[in-house]
């Protein structure tokens, strides 16, 4: 398949990894921001093929993982109300709140539905004028345009029974928070290609210059990851801190102008809580005053719910690149995908879910369901060089 098969070519991936081995001379800590990149790295065993000088840490770019527990509990409270149809992407149904999840609300009789687009939720509102339809609008810049468009469409249709529970966050403020923390270890970034496809990367040169870190916009296939890492390592080894675009087939400097327009039309910048991380100023979006009628949090008066995280979960430290999933004493025992303590074990993009799915909790992780054939081919090509 064009634009897929060639980016999974074992020889090309191996060539990039061999070049990393030739280039690196000292230890470096590199963070991949996006949870999709984390899964690609773990699935294909790329981190096991890198030289020991390169340590990969996993960033906060998993939208489900950083949605605060408080918002989950507000979603549960709204979804349990009579006369409400609560709609969400499937990942969110299994994210644990303080006293259950959306699946448990549905099991108790709540009308909770999985949708594949917020525009589907608008259609449900049209078809059910006697019900209040709520969409759980979470995510990074990637999902914001469609979520914003649903509000624009609902207003154009004159719907008074549609609202959104908003928990949108943005990547650049999180990068600032990580790099300015006193315990920061990150020396370079693989930037999240899908976010950059929407927003471009014009904000990143200021971050690279301020903190002296290279940032490489990177895709999600094995060759994308390997070439992105090579670009970061080359910069680190030569003392450069620049922004490079290694995902040119999807990302431009300025991004998607129509998508940015609808985001700015509907949302305004707000301070946001990040699950496991805390409050990051000006790090997210909320509805503008002119769209306040579509604010589910205000409509259902759930603004006073406050919560507390499980003391066993170290997801916050994982999301900041301070620890790995297997550093958690609950990983793979008390915390599994079937009974998760935190969102990083639930989401399809969560680091803990990736480690568990691909067998990193086993003594021989190859017994898991890794893409072992591709990893073996890459490993063989690297070792044969």
How would you sum up this structure, described in words?
The protein is α/β, with parallel strands linked by helices and 385 residues long. It has 2 domains: 1-311, Rossmann fold (3-Layer(aba) Sandwich), CATH 3.40.50; 315-378, no CATH class. Helices cover 39% and strands 18% of the residues. The protein contains 17 helices and 11 strands. The strands form 2 sheets. The chain has a 6-stranded mixed beta sheet, sandwiched between helices. A 5-stranded parallel beta sheet has the order 2-1-7-8-9. The radius of gyration is 21 Å and the shape is globular. It starts with 9 loop residues before the first helix and ends with a helix.
Kindly state the mean pLDDT as a whole number?
90
**Share in β-strands:** 15-25%
CATH class term of the largest domain: Alpha Beta
> Care to count the β-strands?
11
Order of helices and strands: HEHHEHHEHEHEHEHEHHEHEHEEHHHH
> Which sequence of strands runs across the widest sheet?
4-3-5-6-11-10
Number of domains: 2
Distance between the termini: 28 Å
Helix content: 25-40%
Using only C-alpha atoms, the radius of gyration works out to: 21 Å
Structure classification: alpha/beta
The largest pleated sheet is described as:
6 strands, mixed
CATH-assigned fold name of the largest domain = Rossmann fold
The CATH level-2 architecture of the largest domain is identified as: 3-Layer(aba) Sandwich
CATH H-level homologous superfamily name of the largest domain: HypD, alpha/beta domain 2
The geometry reads as: globular
**Low-pLDDT residue intervals, each spanning 5 or more residues:** 363-372
- Helix count equals 17
